[in-house]
Amino acid sequence: GEKFKAISAADFFYKNKEIAGFDNPVRATYTIMRELVENALDACEQYSILPEVRVKLIDEGNSIYKLKVEDNGIGVPYEQVPYAFAQILFGSKYTLRQSRGIFGLGGKMAILYGQITAHSTVRVTSSTGGFEKYSYELNINIQENRPVIRRKEVGPNPGRWRGTTVQFSFEGDYVRAKPKVVEYFKQTSILLPYANILFVDPDGVLYRFDRVTDVMPKPAEEVQPHPHGIDVEGVQRMINASRSSTMLDFMANNFHRVGVATALNFLKSIKIDPQANPKTLQSRELLTVVSRMKEYDEFQPPDAQCLSPIGMELLKAGIMREFRPEFVAVTQRGASAYSGYPFIVEAAIAYGGEIPITPPDEMSVFRYANKIPLLYDLHSDVAMKVIKKINWQRYRLDLSTMPIAFFIHICATKVPYKTVGKEYIADRPEVEYEIEWALKTCAREVKMHLTRKEKASIVQRR
Amino acid sequence: GEKFKAISAADFFYKNKEIAGFDNPVRATYTIMRELVENALDACEQYSILPEVRVKLIDEGNSIYKLKVEDNGIGVPYEQVPYAFAQILFGSKYTLRQSRGIFGLGGKMAILYGQITAHSTVRVTSSTGGFEKYSYELNINIQENRPVIRRKEVGPNPGRWRGTTVQFSFEGDYVRAKPKVVEYFKQTSILLPYANILFVDPDGVLYRFDRVTDVMPKPAEEVQPHPHGIDVEGVQRMINASRSSTMLDFMANNFHRVGVATALNFLKSIKIDPQANPKTLQSRELLTVVSRMKEYDEFQPPDAQCLSPIGMELLKAGIMREFRPEFVAVTQRGASAYSGYPFIVEAAIAYGGEIPITPPDEMSVFRYANKIPLLYDLHSDVAMKVIKKINWQRYRLDLSTMPIAFFIHICATKVPYKTVGKEYIADRPEVEYEIEWALKTCAREVKMHLTRKEKASIVQRR
Ligand SMILES: Nc1ncnc2c1ncn2[C@@H]1O[C@H](COP(=O)(O)OP(=O)(O)OP(=O)(O)O)[C@@H](O)[C@H]1O
Ligand SMILES: Nc1ncnc2c1ncn2[C@@H]1O[C@H](COP(=O)(O)OP(=O)(O)OP(=O)(O)O)[C@@H](O)[C@H]1O
Ligand SMILES: [Mg+2]
Ligand SMILES: [Mg+2]
Predict the structure, then answer these.
(1) How would you label A127-164 residue by residue, b for 16+ Cβ within 10 Å and e otherwise?
(2) B328-381 residue pLDDT tens
(3) Which residues of B424-455 are buried (b: 16+ CB within 10 A; e: fewer)?
(4) Is B258 exposed, middle or buried (0-12, 13-18, 19+ CB in 10 A)?
(5) Which of A71, A357, B69, B151 could form an SS bridge with A40, CB 3.0 to 4.6 Å?
(6) Minimal CA separation from B205 to chain A, in Å
(7) pLDDT tens digits for B297-331?
(8) What mean pLDDT is predicted for residues B12-25?
(9) A420 — contact with chain B (CB < 8 Å)?
(10) Ligand number with the minimum distance to the CA of A107
(11) Is A282 exposed, middle or buried (0-12, 13-18, 19+ CB in 10 A)?
(12) A232: CA distance to ligand 3 center in Å?
């Protein structure tokens, strides 16, 4: 007969490391760098700390690399360190606000990969700026998904240092990973003119990205779920957690931008008694509430306080600096939502200048999600699906003969990544819709530019 | 400060359903059908039961569909049913033998999706052929990842029926999913001439795939891990679980096709004392054993008892029947291994007949993994990477002007899928290597055929 058993989440990701972005030593090198840098940037940005991130990768021979990432972020509280770094599906980013981290496993997978390929422990030193700073040496008990504390020390923190240092070794391949790793740092810093990022690579080459401004965007704030698209399980959990004894009270106090007036109008429109007790709602009634919530278009759209877009000026400036294009059209869509998660699409189309003319299967498409550059699997990304779908001729654009580059940024309280390695964005209809409209808006502007340019040259020739 | 918490594996896949293959109702419809049919086929094939699988999908209106899948497989033991169908990361396929299932979550994700989109319970009826058959009505407690038994009944089983029936509702989109769903059934049955598969779709259309033979391939048998590529964690666990008091005893009793002689030669070659106690091995020594195990080429390659390839005749017959090509070259590589997992690549290149000439970005590539057809994300698949890499001119093949179709089947004790939705295969170097050699072998045969054909036509013209 069959042998049945349960496995832990850590064991699942250990057995299936390709799923977490660790297909092979080249991809692992990239993924590890990405995961640790993103943790460092989140720790700074969420608290309006001007980021100072230092990354050092040393070649220890035999394909083993030692990585050290240091940041001046908020630090990790003493009791949380073992779980934050050695328990899969544990973290502080399960909240409804934009951050690079969302799964609660990126940093841990990197550390797990070091443990299984180089038998490495991870050394974490941190302080939240208090009188003490502390150091742990950890492993992950993979079968039981819990931390193994090899060593820990607490010491004085005279300089009131605040931040985190993570260090471990792993089997990698920097030679092959280098182009993507360097591109990742470059693309990241284009979007973060207020960050100081330093990367010393195994050849001793120093990559410095110095800040050009001290102005930081306002950090994203946590919000309640938006009524558009939240599913039955989501609403059921809110009901279970809520103390409301009426549907009116429940609706008015649990959803983003839904107050008493909106709640009353909604409940009346779907013929649910505002005085009904949410905890005794029939399954049928619950389904009605949820499905009608999706279509009710008198809910206020999400506001962007839970999001932190790049911004039109910054996006344009970054593109101008990199490509010196003849023309750039940028746009920022209003906030929308999928499955109750607010999101915003920002896009740009750049024409001419130093942008190359590319063959049709190698388009210049630059994608970002929550300010993370996405450098893999372009063809599976929803952005590519949209680009292939649009009839560019209507905008006088011929992608095979004109120097055109596309830029797409999706910022969301939860980015709909298709993969745990955050390689590309899944085919969400709401997201696809927003990308399509953003690109068409930009396309129209590029068309107008080309038309004006053509008219000007006609005038000139006369 | 940050709010730290842990979440269950069920909560992770609930929050990130795109990662499990449930991007949207269209993709969800396909994934759900796939997951349940694959469970049914595994339950039959693993026990040499000629499969009888019946699938019925009913449109209940409002985008809600009811799915019922019935099989004559081995059945699920009474106490295991709640966990098998309502606890994520639970199953019977965590063993080292080829099966379609590997993760312990496919069926559950389908059921979870039905629960959150249609508030559906799942009804499972099963019997292992004994005096009783039993029925459960289940939900998943997502936050705690455990089953909720709504109802259960045990009754007599007069006909000694053995098998499983699974039924639940979910929000889908059959209209858009139809082409891929039908293609999935068609492709699946091409590889399973001994299976009776019946699919009744929401429009009442009956798709019947009747068996044309009663001969089934031998089921795959469980084996021990192969020494090539097993990592430090894997070896450490084997040491912890083993009672061996010497390295010689440990090596000789725990690895696929490694006996006393091979173990002794290996340990001597890496200067590890055969009498050393594995449990007191230094970390440094353990790393030496593991890394040298990877490179030691005097280990026997895996034998194929843990695998169940399609077979050259069947593959050729299926291609002949579908495309009536002018010529088919098929090949089956010897067993290889990655990360300790044995695998075999089978490939075919077909030329002419009813095969269309396709533009370069739309090649005819048919991929299978453990007899599952892969119909998505071709461009991200490692097979495509290989096809793009090969210099086809050397084989007188011009992919843009000739009618050519590629067929690649990877069978493995663990297929290196890149995604939880089993959409495509990750970039594993060992797998890439095998696919490359398989395709080149086929390409050489096609080249010889084209050369002969050309000579024949020259002779004819004289
Ligand atoms: N450098 C750091 N500074 C402060 N906190 C950190 C740092 N690195 C990790 N953490 C904490 O550890 C938690 C777990 O990190 P991990 O990378 O495993 O998951 P995540 O960032 O929450 O999500 P994701 O898997 O998407 O990266 C984070 O949520 C954060 O609270
Ligand atoms: N129709 C069936 N007949 C017999 N056993 C079944 C059937 N469906 C599911 N099972 C049992 O339930 C377990 C869990 O199934 P599930 O689909 O969730 O995971 P899996 O098949 O093991 O792996 P995967 O996630 O890759 O599909 C299986 O391992 C199997 O033991
Ligand atoms: Mg992280
Ligand atoms: Mg399954």
Answers:
(1) bbeeeebbbbbbbbebeebbbeeeeeeeeebeeeebbb
(2) 999 999 999 998 899 999 999 999 999 999 887 789 999 999 999 999 999 999
(3) bbbbbebbbebbbbbbbbbbebbbebbeeeee
(4) buried
(5) A71
(6) 28
(7) 999 988 899 999 999 999 999 999 889 999 999 99
(8) 94
(9) yes
(10) 1
(11) exposed
(12) 28
Q: CB under 8 Å to B156, separation ≥6 — which residues?
A: B131, B132, B133
pLDDT > 90 fraction of chain B, expressed in percent and rounded: 91
Task: For residue B422, give the nearest of B376, B363, B354 by alpha carbon.
Answer: B376
Backbone φ and ψ of A196, nearest 5°: -100, 115
Q: What is the pLDDT of residues A194-226, one digit of tens each?
A: 999 999 999 999 999 999 999 999 999 999 999
> DSSP states of A79-127 as a string?
GGHHHHHHSSSEES--SSS--S--SS-HHHHHHHHHHHHH---EEEEEE
Q: Is A337 exposed, middle or buried (0-12, 13-18, 19+ CB in 10 A)?
A: buried
Residue B187 scores a pLDDT above 80: yes
**B57-85 mean pLDDT:** 97
**Among all chains, which residue has been given the structure tokens 């999908």?**
B57
Cβ pair B103:A16 closer than 8 A: yes
- Best residue among B71, B79, B93 to mutate for probing ligand 2, ranked by most atoms within 8 Å of CB: B93
First to last CA, chain B: 88
Which are the contacts of B278, defined by CB distance < 8 A and separation ≥ 6? B239, B242, B244, B245, B246, B247, B250
- How would you classify residue B402: left for phi > 0, otherwise alpha for psi between -120 and 50, otherwise beta? beta
Chain B within 8 Å of A184 (Cβ-Cβ)?
no
Average pLDDT over residues B413-420: 95
pLDDT at B461: 82
- Quick one: three-class SS letters along chain B? CCCCEECCHHHHHHHCCCCCCCCCHHHHHHHHHHHHHHHHHHHHHCCCCCCEEEEEEEECCCCEEEEEEEECCCCCCHHHHHHHHHCCCEECCCCCCCCCCCCCCHHHHHHHHHHHHHCCCEEEEEEECCCEEEEEEEEEECCCCEEEEEEEEEEECCCCCEEEEEEEEEECCHHHHHHHHHHHHHHHHHHCCCCEEEEECCCCCEEEECCCCCCCCCCCCCCCCCCCCCCHHHHHHHHHHCCCCCHHHHHHHHCCCCCHHHHHHHHHHCCCCCCCCHHHCCHHHHHHHHHHHHHCCCCCCCCHHHCCCCCHHHHHHHHHHHHCCCEEEEEECCCEEECCEEEEEEEEEEECCCCCCCCCCCCEEEEEECCEEECCCHHHCHHHHHHHHCCHHHHCCCCCCCCEEEEEEEEECCCCECCCCCCCECCCHHHHHHHHHHHHHHHHHHHHHHHHHHHHHHHHHC
Per the CB < 8 A criterion, the answer to whether B80 and B142 are in contact is no
Closest ligand 1 atom to Cα of A71: 1
**Interval A349-394: pLDDT, tens:** 999 999 999 887 789 999 999 999 999 999 899 999 999 999 999 9
Instruction: Give the type of residue at A221.
Output: E
Distance between CA atoms of B369 and B416, rounded to whole angstroms? Answer: 9
Instruction: For residue A43, report the distance from its CA to the centre of ligand 3, in Å.
Output: 10
Ligand 2 pocket, residues with Cβ under 6 angstroms: A 2; B 35, 39-40, 43, 71, 73-74, 76, 84, 91-93, 101-108, 164
Of B9, B46, B7, B100, nearest to B412 by C-alpha is B100
Biggest distance spanned by C-alpha atoms of chain A: 88
CA distances from A370 to A45, A97, A306, A343, B348 (A): 12, 11, 12, 10, 43
* Tokens found for residue A263: 């709640």
**The amino acid at A48:** S
